[in-house]
Amino acid sequence: MSAVAKKATAAQPHIVGNELACSIIARMLLLPCPPGALLQNNGDVYFCSLDFNTAGQALPPITPSTVVGELPELSWGITLFDVLVMNDDRHNQNISCNTVTKEVTIFDHSHAFMKPSGDIDATLNTNKGKPAIGGRTVLLRN
Which end of the chain has less Cβ packing within 10 Å, N or C? Predict the structure, then answer.
Protein backbone atom coordinates (compact mmCIF):
# COMPACT_ATOMS: atom_id res chain seq x y z
CA MET A 1 0.00 0.00 0.00
CA SER A 2 1.31 3.45 -0.78
CA ALA A 3 0.39 6.96 0.27
CA VAL A 4 0.72 10.51 -0.97
CA ALA A 5 2.34 12.79 1.63
CA LYS A 6 2.27 16.57 1.89
CA LYS A 7 3.99 18.83 4.40
CA ALA A 8 3.83 22.55 5.04
CA THR A 9 6.08 24.78 2.99
CA ALA A 10 6.76 28.51 3.00
CA ALA A 11 4.47 28.86 -0.03
CA GLN A 12 1.71 26.71 1.53
CA PRO A 13 2.03 26.85 5.32
CA HIS A 14 -1.51 25.58 5.94
CA ILE A 15 -1.53 22.64 3.53
CA VAL A 16 -1.52 19.96 6.24
CA GLY A 17 -4.47 21.48 8.10
CA ASN A 18 -6.41 22.08 4.87
CA GLU A 19 -5.89 18.51 3.67
CA LEU A 20 -6.77 16.98 7.05
CA ALA A 21 -9.92 19.06 7.57
CA CYS A 22 -11.15 18.47 4.01
CA SER A 23 -10.47 14.74 4.21
CA ILE A 24 -12.50 14.45 7.40
CA ILE A 25 -15.37 16.61 6.12
CA ALA A 26 -15.53 14.88 2.72
CA ARG A 27 -15.61 11.44 4.30
CA MET A 28 -18.28 12.55 6.81
CA LEU A 29 -20.36 13.69 3.83
CA LEU A 30 -19.79 10.27 2.21
CA LEU A 31 -17.90 11.80 -0.67
CA PRO A 32 -15.30 9.67 -2.46
CA CYS A 33 -12.11 10.97 -0.88
CA PRO A 34 -9.20 8.70 0.06
CA PRO A 35 -8.70 8.27 3.81
CA GLY A 36 -5.77 10.13 5.31
CA ALA A 37 -3.92 10.68 8.56
CA LEU A 38 -1.18 12.79 10.08
CA LEU A 39 2.28 11.28 10.29
CA GLN A 40 5.46 12.68 11.71
CA ASN A 41 8.93 12.14 10.28
CA ASN A 42 12.11 13.83 11.53
CA GLY A 43 10.07 16.52 13.27
CA ASP A 44 7.97 17.35 10.21
CA VAL A 45 4.23 16.71 10.20
CA TYR A 46 2.77 15.29 7.00
CA PHE A 47 -0.76 14.70 5.81
CA CYS A 48 -0.74 11.29 4.15
CA SER A 49 -3.63 9.93 2.11
CA LEU A 50 -3.92 6.50 0.62
CA ASP A 51 -2.75 6.42 -2.96
CA PHE A 52 -5.68 5.06 -4.97
CA ASN A 53 -3.70 5.30 -8.22
CA THR A 54 -2.47 1.71 -8.27
CA ALA A 55 -1.25 2.00 -11.87
CA GLY A 56 1.36 4.55 -10.83
CA GLN A 57 0.82 6.63 -13.96
CA ALA A 58 -0.50 10.14 -14.28
CA LEU A 59 -4.28 10.06 -14.03
CA PRO A 60 -6.04 11.20 -17.18
CA PRO A 61 -8.10 14.37 -16.84
CA ILE A 62 -11.81 13.72 -16.46
CA THR A 63 -14.44 14.72 -18.96
CA PRO A 64 -16.63 16.91 -16.74
CA SER A 65 -19.75 16.64 -18.90
CA THR A 66 -19.58 12.84 -18.65
CA VAL A 67 -19.27 12.90 -14.85
CA VAL A 68 -22.07 15.45 -14.48
CA GLY A 69 -24.29 13.61 -16.97
CA GLU A 70 -23.82 10.16 -15.44
CA LEU A 71 -23.48 11.14 -11.77
CA PRO A 72 -25.41 14.39 -11.27
CA GLU A 73 -26.10 13.96 -7.54
CA LEU A 74 -22.45 13.21 -6.79
CA SER A 75 -21.38 16.14 -8.96
CA TRP A 76 -23.60 18.47 -6.94
CA GLY A 77 -22.29 16.97 -3.71
CA ILE A 78 -18.69 17.62 -4.75
CA THR A 79 -19.53 21.15 -5.90
CA LEU A 80 -21.33 21.97 -2.62
CA PHE A 81 -18.42 20.49 -0.65
CA ASP A 82 -16.02 22.77 -2.53
CA VAL A 83 -18.26 25.74 -1.64
CA LEU A 84 -18.28 24.67 2.02
CA VAL A 85 -14.50 24.40 2.26
CA MET A 86 -13.84 27.40 -0.01
CA ASN A 87 -11.91 25.27 -2.51
CA ASP A 88 -11.62 27.32 -5.67
CA ASP A 89 -9.24 24.86 -7.32
CA ARG A 90 -11.32 21.86 -8.44
CA HIS A 91 -9.96 21.24 -11.90
CA ASN A 92 -10.10 18.11 -14.05
CA GLN A 93 -6.83 16.77 -12.70
CA ASN A 94 -7.70 16.68 -8.99
CA ILE A 95 -10.77 14.58 -9.51
CA SER A 96 -10.64 11.17 -11.15
CA CYS A 97 -13.26 8.97 -12.74
CA ASN A 98 -12.90 5.33 -13.67
CA THR A 99 -15.00 5.23 -16.82
CA VAL A 100 -15.56 1.46 -16.50
CA THR A 101 -16.71 1.32 -12.86
CA LYS A 102 -18.02 4.91 -12.70
CA GLU A 103 -15.98 5.44 -9.51
CA VAL A 104 -15.08 9.05 -8.83
CA THR A 105 -12.37 10.17 -6.40
CA ILE A 106 -11.65 13.72 -5.24
CA PHE A 107 -8.27 14.73 -3.88
CA ASP A 108 -5.87 17.66 -3.43
CA HIS A 109 -7.57 20.16 -1.15
CA SER A 110 -4.53 22.31 -0.56
CA HIS A 111 -6.31 25.47 -1.77
CA ALA A 112 -9.27 25.16 0.61
CA PHE A 113 -9.93 27.13 3.81
CA MET A 114 -6.69 28.83 4.73
CA LYS A 115 -4.84 30.52 1.92
CA PRO A 116 -1.07 31.04 2.30
CA SER A 117 -1.52 34.32 4.21
CA GLY A 118 -3.59 32.51 6.84
CA ASP A 119 -5.97 35.45 7.04
CA ILE A 120 -9.45 33.94 6.73
CA ASP A 121 -11.08 37.39 7.08
CA ALA A 122 -9.08 38.67 4.10
CA THR A 123 -10.13 35.64 2.08
CA LEU A 124 -13.80 36.20 2.94
CA ASN A 125 -13.58 39.95 2.24
CA THR A 126 -11.85 39.35 -1.09
CA ASN A 127 -14.72 37.12 -2.16
CA LYS A 128 -17.55 39.29 -0.78
CA GLY A 129 -20.20 39.81 -3.42
CA LYS A 130 -18.71 37.16 -5.69
CA PRO A 131 -20.08 33.70 -6.38
CA ALA A 132 -19.40 31.29 -3.53
CA ILE A 133 -16.60 29.67 -5.48
CA GLY A 134 -14.49 31.10 -8.19
CA GLY A 135 -11.43 29.97 -9.99
CA ARG A 136 -11.57 26.46 -11.33
CA THR A 137 -14.70 24.55 -10.44
CA VAL A 138 -14.80 22.04 -13.24
CA LEU A 139 -18.12 20.32 -12.45
CA LEU A 140 -20.07 23.55 -12.05
CA ARG A 141 -19.33 24.69 -15.59
CA ASN A 142 -21.07 21.71 -17.17
Answer: N
Alpha helices in 1-142 (DSSP H): 15-28, 64-70, 72-84, 120-126
CA distance 139 to 78: 8
Q: Judging by beta carbons within 10 Å of its beta carbon (0-12, 13-18, 19+), is residue 89 exposed, middle or buried?
A: middle
Q: Phi and psi of 120, rounded to 5°?
A: -65, -35
Q: Which of 5-9, 40-44, 87-91 has the lowest mean pLDDT?
A: 87-91
Q: Can you give the pTM of this predicted structure? A: 0.83
Spatial separation of the C-alpha atoms in residues 133 and 79, rounded to whole Å: 9
32: CB partners within 8 A, 6+ apart: 74, 103, 104, 105, 106
